[in-house]
Amino acid sequence: MDYILSIVVLAGINMIAVLGLSIFTGFTGLFSLGHAAFVGVGAYTSAILTYYYYVPFPLALLAGSAAAGLVSLIIGIPTLRAKLRSDYFAIAILGFGEALRVILENLEITNGARGLPGIDSFTTLPIVIFCLGGGILVARNFLRSRWGAACIAIREDPIAAEMAGVRLFQTRLLSLVVSAVYCGLSGGLLAHFLSFIQPVMFTLIQSTQLLAAVIAGGMGSLSGPLIASFVFIALPEALRVAQIWRLVAYGLLLVLIMVYRPQGLMGYSEISSFFSKNRSRERMQP
Amino acid sequence: MTTPTPLLSVRGLTRDFGGIRAVDSFSFDVPEGSITGIIGPNGAGKTTVFNLITGVYRPTAGDILFKGEPIGGHRPDRIVRAGIARTFQNIRLFNRRSCLENVLTPLLQREKSNFFAALAGTPSARRTERSLREKAFDLLTSLGLDAFAPLQANTLPYGLQRKLEIARALATNPSLLLLDEPAAGMNPEETRSLARLIAEVREKFNVTILLIEHHMDLVMNICSPVIVINFGALLAEGTPDEVRANPDVVAAYLGKGRKGK
Question: Cα torsion for B103, B105, B109, B110, to the nearest 10°?
């Protein structure tokens, strides 16, 4: 039971980070192979605060999210400029992810490569459900707002978006900061669930997994990546009996999705639309 | 007789791409309330002029004055806010969004809303969104697109996509609307109805229109003044009749006879 519970909690924590990356990649159309670094910033910031300074857990979570948001500004401001193609950002964040690992491994306060053990395990299932539920609501509201509409317009056509009054640079930067805050929150929850973190937990492999969940779940969808993220966490655990073969199953699943659902599980649609196709059509015509 | 200040005034506009001078000290005025047409052979620099006016490119030299204010080199979104909107030669819609959302996007950008109130989904944020949705729907209705509101933009037939692009441009509340080859790919029947639509839009939305077109009948019927550009420079300017009678224009389009003109 404890084992299943821990898988559900881990999946929930991962889903929060995927939610953030979905806003950045699925809705704004920018690619990132470095968002695990923001998870790392959130994890280390909040863990250091509760471990050394006895900061209350909710405050530490907030600080971790804020720190991830601030760090994303430092990378985003020089690389998301309107005149630069989005490839520049993809390369910069790839480098940043590696740089962060080196920094974490060499700092005193992070206990270097050995990692930080003995973090209080404050994270419980209700807390994760609360954060995930709140995160989904906020993401939905964000996407309906003028800023969300601006993000989607940029994904569809940056030039037309500008002619619709969208500020290219500010909107891309905002999308990055929002996604980084989600990842930071996810990191804070992760650190206080595992009660142990080390730098190798936030590298390219984890970034790739986040991106795989967004792509396999479907661009421009929130529910698709959430489902994919859950499956990607739960499946390797469920197949633990198969030992080394579970990685094959993981790869096979990705290949099957690419072949049979190239747009992802829920590309450009939400699970709710399956139940309310007719209703939504009526709502549109007042 | 004193002429009123033109809505848009372009002076000595020049743009180089590497060693090629695409636009060469080009000057013209767009009088307020007019439907001004720009014509010229392929590659004459018409679309480049549009891209310079809307801030997609920076001018190498020259001034663009809109309502008397210089706007040359400003960012596109700033120029949109100043009151210039445009459509594109190859349609650029937000393809995977509904028609309603295509029009809603610029309406939302004009709104001054509170970021955190929007994230929290406060009742006032929801009210604003609902009223803008209604506004978007009204705009679609006024262009006869209301029946297509929930459909994805790229599923519309070509002619309606062009109309939707005009609707989206109007949603930015422009005083000057630039149309880049609005009749491209349309048959004579569709072109005639487009001409009616353009005249109607000018009346209903109180906008000045500047359009690029190859369909001579459309330009000669609804545009005045007509500006002719060739090799990036002004070739002729005047009423449709004056332009039609201009020997330089005839030469640019049909070529010169062996004895010159």
Answer: 20
Taking only the tens place, the pLDDT of each residue in A196-234 is 999 999 999 899 999 999 999 999 999 999 999 999 888
- Domain span at residue B252? 1-83+173-261
Clarify whether residues B16 and B143 are in a common domain: no
Alpha-carbon distance values, A176 to A73, A233, B52, B193 (Å) = 8, 24, 30, 45
- Measured between alpha carbons, how far is A216 from A267 in angstroms, rounded to an integer? 9
The closest CB to that of B54, out of A152, A163, A167, belongs to: A163
Q: Are residues B134 and B218 in the same domain?
A: no
SS (H, E, C) A188-237: HHHHHHHCEECHHHHCHHHHHHHHHHHHHHCCCCCHHHHHHHHHHHHHHH
Amino acid present at B124: S
Mutation target for B interface from A137, A146, A221: give the one with most B CBs within 10 A.
Answer: A146
How does strand B8-17 pair with strand B61-66?
Answer: antiparallel
Q: Give this complex's ipTM.
A: 0.92
Strand B8-17 with B176-180, pairing: unpaired
Of B98, B109, B125, the CB nearest to A165: B109
Q: Are residues B140 and B161 in the same domain?
A: yes
B90 lies in some domain: no
| Contacts of A129-136 spanning 24+ positions with Cβ under 8 A | A129/A12, A131/A12, A131/A16, A131/A185, A131/A189, A132/A12, A132/A15, A132/A16, A132/A19, A135/A16, A135/A19, A135/A182, A135/A185, A136/A19, A136/A222, A136/A226
Q: What is the rounded distance in angstroms from the CA atom of residue B222 to the CA atom of residue B194?
A: 11
Contact (CB<8Å) B146/A285: yes
User: pLDDT tens digit string along A117-135?
Assistant: 999 999 999 999 999 999 9
> Cα torsion for A202, A96, A27, B78, to the nearest 10°?
150
Same domain (yes/no): B63, B144: no
Within-domain flag for B15: yes
